[in-house]
Write a structure and sequence with these properties.
The structure is a homodimer. By secondary structure, chain A is mostly helical. Chain A is 78% helix and 0% strand. Chain A has 2 domains: 62 residues, Orthogonal Bundle (Arc Repressor Mutant, subunit A), CATH 1.10.10.60; 147 residues, Tetracycline Repressor, domain 2. Chain A is elongated and about 60 Å long. At the A-B interface, helix 2, helix 7, helix 9 and helix 10 of A face helix 2, helix 7, helix 9 and helix 10 of B. Chain A binds a DNA duplex through helix 2 and helix 4.
Chain lengths: 210, 210
DNA sequence: CAAATTACTGAGTGAACGGTCAATGAAAAA
DNA sequence: TTTTTCATTGACCGTTCACTCAGTAATTTG
């Protein structure tokens, strides 16, 4: 099947083959966690979904723990790369940058049920798994710090209605709330539906002149 | 041990004995999930921590699934009873009632690392377990609705700076953010530290006269 | 008191799980 | 070409898990 196809296709280069396999397995892992939850996600099921043998899954990732960790890393880097990228292209005004950060949080690559679902699953286990904590802690912290800095900068330009730290917490909080809405809300819940209230709150905290 | 003590103490009444045991087991389950995560929480470990035999744990709860469900229910009812209670004792003004609801979210019985940790663990598995979804969905929905209604009422009295629904989402979002802060933040993070920013946001959305 | 119900124990069971391993074919290096 | 390395399979193994069960003691019912 896909195994054979890939063999005929790209197997000349072993490095590519290996990377392709790893991506395949990580995708299958995300599927499993999304549909079954972490506690029901087994190597056998991941292997089945990816079309590889169980032995091969272990061969590429050494063991289940590192597979899960690398899956989390993958999700994390995707998000990190995305908002760093968007931020780099944004204007200089703190408000624009904050807006860019908010929009990045609702980018299609991140803001979809499958990914958010897995995100929350890891999040729920992270307190008892130091590795998970380390992995998402780093990104989370960086994101939080950036939001905080922007709120401070914005406060400096024209003092908002909230202490900068409170503003930052509020914004991060409502973003998280919209992520939850995506998971629980109606199937029609879209990027725009999520974005509007966040911007409304931002405008409330930092009313813009004109 | 505690088994013997309890036998000598209250075993005259079998109903009490059974309830006492169930509470013991649920406490042990919460401990396990807090310290090990759901995926490492086993009947054997729960039994060990509660001081009962594994067979007895199964005897009282039939199987692991219902034990976990009832643990979640316990947490849920605790929270539900708490905020309903606080709300019943609050004044009539929507602002007072909203404040009561916020304070209830940071009540010591709920707002502590052990409980919040377990809460998030279930939350992370709830997407793939319909039972969990049903159990916390009901409470969550009720809480959300109440917050929304109060925001609408408050808006009617003196229009706030946000659409009522956005205000509700913002408030729920920042509460959640403070729950996360308790988990990740410094050990010294206290009820008051969590409360202040939420009230600050509330005052920003609904500035009070006087 | 006798009978019936309930609480409890601990050994035992089958299934599922994560991980190993020898064997095989194919690619890369020598 | 020969040798070495890598990718892959599938059978296999030891462990752990949730759950059962026969047996026992204590409690409630009649």
């Amino acid at each position: 099947m896909s195994t054979v196809t890939q063999k005929n296709f790209a197997s000349r280069n072993r490095r590519r083959q290996s990377e392709f396999r790893k991506q395949q397995v990580i995708d299958a892992t995300i599927d499993c966690i999304d549909q079954l939850g972490i506690s029901q996600t087994t190597l056998a099921r991941i292997a089945e979904r990816s079309g590889l043998s169980q032995g091969n899954v272990v061969f590429h990732f050494k063991n289940k723990d590192t597979l899960l960790e690398q899956t989390l890393m993958h999700l994390n880097e995707e998000h990190l790369a995305n908002w760093r990228d968007v931020l780099a292209q944004a204007g200089n005004h703190p408000r624009d940058r904050l807006l860019a950060l908010i929009e990045a949080s609702f980018a299609p690559a991140v803001f979809n049920r499958r990914k958010i679902s897995v995100w929350f699953a890891f999040w729920g286990e992270s307190r008892s798994k130091a590795a998970y904590m380390r992995i998402c802690g780093a990104n989370d912290q960086a994101f939080s710090n950036t939001v905080s800095e922007l709120c401070i900068a914005l406060h400096g330009l024209s003092p908002g209605r909230l202490a900068p730290q409170t503003a930052a917490t509020s914004i991060e909080g409502i973003i998280d709330a919209q992520w939850q809405n995506l998971l629980l809300g109606p199937p029609g819940f879209k990027r725009g539906d999520a974005l509007a209230p966040v911007i409304e709150l931002l405008d409330c905290i930092y009313p813009h002149a004109g």
